[in-house]
Specification:
Elements: H1 3-16, H2 18-40, H3 47-51, H4 55-71, H5 78-85, H6 89-123, H7 130-158, H8 161-183, H9 191-195, H10 209-233
């Protein structure tokens, strides 16, 4: 089966599952909502991060989206039916990743610019400028998309939504912060922290806004490559 029909089929799966639509909506609500709360009590040290503070919560929804989109295939023999229609496992997994990336990026861009507008309204005169704000909005969208794809790759390796979320959510909420406090700049290279460098007005670490997103992209590429290998090697 050609790639485009496979992609269309995967998109139908995503848009017809309430849990995945809800996860996309949660990306916007969590990011904009927590950012607005943070901006209301923010100081002037890093106005851009004050505007996009909620991305730390929005990325949890992005991870849930990527995880459920892949893990649904491993329940009830769904993957066997999928591979009966699309025997080329590499093509199917590429279509699945694309079907995850496109809505995640679209919702991420909406989230980034809504969050920017809300943050500027809350901060008023101390808000970041438009050029810096647009960089943050685009960085927000790219980061959320990469985290969704990173989770998709991990879910393909573990073949379980519960296992994937049990690994990634504690990592984001606990381990990443602990390592960050103990090891300084080493933590900048973790996937969730590297991508968020683009959301800071200034950063004294080793990475810049786009190199930080590049590091997260490398983590994502590695996770997807591992997931694709697992799909090819393991019986459905």
């Amino acid at each position: 089966m050609p790639f485009v029909p496979v992609l269309h089929a995967e998109w139908i799966k995503i848009r017809t599952l309430r849990s995945q639509v809800g996860a996309l909506a949660a990306m916007l609500v969590a990011t904009a909502g927590f950012s607005a709360l943070a901006a209301a009590d923010a100081d002037d040290a890093d106005p851009l991060f004050s505007v996009f503070f909620g991305v730390g919560f929005g990325q949890i929804a992005a991870i849930a989206f990527g995880t459920t989109a892949v893990s649904a295939e491993f329940r009830g023999g769904a993957l066997r039916l999928t591979l009966a229609a699309v025997p080329d496992r590499g093509r199917w997994f590429a279509a699945k990743a694309t079907a995850i990336a496109l809505p995640a990026l679209a919702v991420g861009l909406l989230t980034g610019f809504v969050t920017l507008l809300v943050g500027r309204a809350v901060l008023g005169a101390s808000a970041p400028g438009w050029s810096e704000g647009v960089r943050g909005a685009v960085g927000c969208a790219v980061h959320l998309t990469l985290m969704a794809l990173f989770a998709a790759g991990v879910a393909a390796v573990l073949r379980s939504g519960v296992a994937t979320l049990s690994v990634l959510i504690p990592f984001l909420l606990i381990v990443s912060f602990v390592i960050g406090d103990l090891s300084g700049s080493v933590a900048d290279f973790l996937p969730d922290r590297a991508g968020q460098v683009a959301l800071h007005s200034a950063w004294d670490g080793a990475l810049g806004p786009w190199s930080g997103l590049g590091v997260t992209a490398l983590w994502t590429a590695a996770a997807l490559a591992a997931g694709a290998w697992r799909v090819r090697r393991r019986d459905a």
